[in-house]
Amino acid sequence: MIDLFPDRSPARRRKLVVENIGLLLSGRLEQPILDADTIVAVGGTITAVGRRADCDVEEADIVVDARGTTVCPGLIDGHTHPTLGEHSPRTDNHSWIHHCLHGGTTTMISAGEVHVAGRPTDRIGVKALAIAAQRSFAAARPSGVKMIAGAPLLEEGLLEEDFRELAEAGVELVGEVGIGSVADVETARTMVGWARANGMRCLTHTGGPSIPGSRLMTAEEILAIDPDVIGHINGGHTAFAHSQIRCLCEGCSRAIEIVHNGNAFAALYALRTATEMGQLERIVLGTDAPSGAGVPALGMLRLVAMLSSFGELPAEQVFCFATGNTARVHGLPQGILAPDRPADLVIMDRAQGTAGRTLLDSVALGDLPGIGMVLIDGVPVLRPSRNTPPATTLPEARRKPL
């Protein structure tokens, strides 16, 4: 694509206007569709969402004509396993973050750098790896994607002071509890408490073992550990019995994570259980990639389409699972289209040839949308996607004359 902003210095407060939006998805379950056709952003932050006549659209550095298509927040993959950079030795995946960007993912969250060759398990090594991963991805965002990395696994010998040191260094996460040498539930619960006291978020491995070093985690153990996120409740890869999934959903109020690289039947059961409970705000999504199943570049979109079609939920609600719900659980500003939020946007339309009359109809039928443009912090980073099916209508962009 043509680089519309060759000078990417953050010091420049560029103004972006996205106009002629046909459908605007907010990312909020309370109001998933907004009555608006225009977004304005300055310096990468949204300043206005509304009708064009009510927005300041003058003197824009770039104007994107959505041409009646759909705009939604950039998707947030809440469960990934990065290493350093874009290579994963697990299945020799290269440039995997870039390919997922073509599937509309603009933010990724690490569930542990588990595939690092020779991953250290001693106190110093655990901290060093987590801090290095956090620093590396904070300093160099592959293709612009925001990777929140540095998620240490629980290893025997870690002390309370280690979690304080990690938090002070900028580490926000604890990787999957159940991968690592800590096998005692009481020890795991104590360490999770230390992490949470220092502002860190935790998730558990759920279901059967996935890689050497992981183990079966029962529903009772997970409830006792009390993580912030019940990681891949549909298994990564092997799922619990449905009775155990219901036990988890009903036994706590924590986030319920459904992943692409898991058991689809169990995913639908977890979704239906949360629907019966009237607690869709607890559902968050991820891919659990890279893993032995590889990297599904369109994994987040495929998960949205699967849950909407088989779960018989409106597509606009399911898009919230992949955006605003995850943002809320992790305390992120992105994932919601509103003033003072990052202008991370996906512009998409129904795919050519779909039976759906609209984009939402097509997703509810199980089809993927075609992505015409992705913007991160108000900057177009790709147009169009080379991985999704071709969109019926593509947006157009023009830059202010120099």
Summarize the structure.
The chain is of the alpha/beta class. Helix content is 27%, strand content 21%.
Based on the model shown, name its key terms.
alpha/beta, 11 helices, 402 residues
Q: Could you describe the 3D structure shown?
A:
This protein is α/β, with parallel strands linked by helices and 402 residues long. 27% of the residues lie in helices and 21% in strands. It has helices at 96-101, 123-139, 160-168, 185-197, 219-225, 242-251, 264-276, 299-311, 315-321, 324-330, 359-364, and strands at residues 15-19, 23-25, 33-34, 38-42, 45-50, 62-65, 70-73, 75-80, 105-110, 146-148, 173-177, 201-204, 229-230, 255-259, 283-286, 345-349, 370-376, 379-382, 396-399. Strands 3-2-7-16-17-18 form a six-stranded mixed beta sheet, with helices on one face. It has a five-stranded mixed beta sheet with strand order 5-4-1-6-19, with no helix packed on it. Helix 6 (242-251) runs parallel beside helix 7.
Helices, by number, come to 11
**Residue ranges: pLDDT <50 for 5 or more in a row?**
none
Q: What percent of residues adopt helix (DSSP H or I)?
A: 25-40%
User: Roughly how many Å is the radius of gyration?
Assistant: 21 Å
**Percentage beta strand:** 15-25%
User: Which class do the helix and strand fractions yield?
Assistant: alpha/beta
What's the SSE pattern? EEEEEEEEHEHEHEHEHEHEHEHHHEHEEE
The counted number of beta strands is: 19
Distance between the termini: 19 Å
Look at the structure and give the mean pLDDT.
94
Label the overall shape.
globular
- Multimerization status: single chain
Largest sheet: 6 strands, mixed
Strand order in the largest sheet: 3-2-7-16-17-18
